[in-house]
Amino acid sequence: MAATRLELNLMRLLSRCEALAAERRDPEEWRLEKYVAALEGMLQELKQQASKPAPELLNEYSRKVDFLKGLLEAEKLTSSTEKALANQFLAPGRTPTTAKERTPATKTVHLQTKARCTGKMRSELLGTVADFILPLCSCRGLAGEEKQSAVELDAVLQHHQDMQEKLAEEMLSLARSLKNNTLAAQNVIKQDNQTLSHSLRMADQNFEKLKDESDRLEQHAKKSVNWLLWLMLIVVCFIFISMILFIRIFPKLK
User: Fold this and answer.
1) Which of 29, 183, 194, 223 could bond to 25 as cystine, CB 3.0-4.6 Å?
2) CB neighbours (10 Å) of residue 108?
3) Other beta carbons within 10 Å of 104
4) Which residues form a coiled coil (predicted)?
5) Is 212 buried (19+), middle (13-18) or exposed (0-12) by CB count in 10 A?
6) 122: Cβ contacts below 8 Å, ≥ 6 apart
7) What is the pLDDT of residues 36-85, one digit of tens each?
8) pLDDT tens digit string along 13-28?
9) 3-class SS of residue 93
10) Measuring CA to CA, which residue among 16, 109, 102, 10 is closest to residue 60?
11) Long-range CB contacts (within 8 A, 24+) of 27-30
């Protein structure tokens, strides 16, 4: 089923929100919150339409919108620990929003947010002088989580880079194949043009020869008619003279 205009607008706005969420935003930035509110309204309107998408696709849209809402609510928390805990329970999307994405953008945002929250917690814990042992232990645990998140993010980025390189190689191979096909087509067209030109020249030569033969035949026909006419006149004259001589030689009997 083809996507409706409302669904296309929702996908565009969702992609824009995911891009904004991936950026390091100013605390006073208000656009993402307004966009997410607009997304909620569009999603509710899409669910009420008669030609609405498949339930799996609607659930994926709802999952991504809920993730963005939870991300905004987590950013409003004051404690880094609370932010990290809130981000831990967020569920990113499972499928890419646009065809250009290889990995869901919300998953990348989730990994980046977890890494930032873990880094802030690590900085706060390392800056605490009192109760040294507990922050140190927590720091090690969080450092391991940060390292795991960083590894996951590196894996995602490496996957993106590998996919881009593979796509570039495929495009290069396609370009080479297209070039070869174009050259082959040009050669075939060139040969066809030469054959057509030769055929046209032969047709012109045959037409000229046919015209010459037609003129000769016409002249020959005219000559034949003239000789026949003269021959008939001579025969008629001969018969006329013979009759006169016959009458003179053999007079009429009385």
Assistant:
1) 29
2) 20
3) 21
4) 193-220
5) exposed
6) 139, 142, 143, 146
7) 888 888 888 888 887 778 888 888 888 888 888 888 887 787 777 777 77
8) 888 888 887 876 676 7
9) coil
10) 10
11) none
Residues in the chain: 254
CB 22 within 8 A of CB 51: no
- Give me 87's structure tokens: 């981000």
Tens-digit pLDDT profile for residues 100-144: 777 777 778 778 777 777 777 777 666 654 454 445 455 455 455
The helix (run of H) or strand (run of E) holding residue 126 is helix 105-127
Tokens of 89: 């329970």
DSSP 2: P
**Integer CA distances (angstroms), 52 to 36, 95, 141, 203, in order:** 20, 19, 46, 65
* Enclosing H/E stretch for 180: helix 133-249
Q: What is the DSSP string of 195-236?
A: HHHHHHHHHHHHHHHHHHHHHHHHHHHHHHHHHHHHHHHHHH
Instruction: Look up residue 63 and give its amino acid.
Output: R
Distance CA 222, CA 218 (A): 6
d(CA 54, CA 164): 30
- The answer to whether 47 touches 7, Cβ cutoff 8 Å, is no
What b/e sequence results for 77-91 when a residue is b if at least 16 CB atoms lie within 10 Å of its CB, and e otherwise? eeebeebbebbeebe
Angle 55-75/105-127 helices, nearest 10 degrees? Answer: 20
Instruction: Using alpha carbons, select from 93, 88, 89, 103 the residue that is nearest to residue 146.
Output: 88
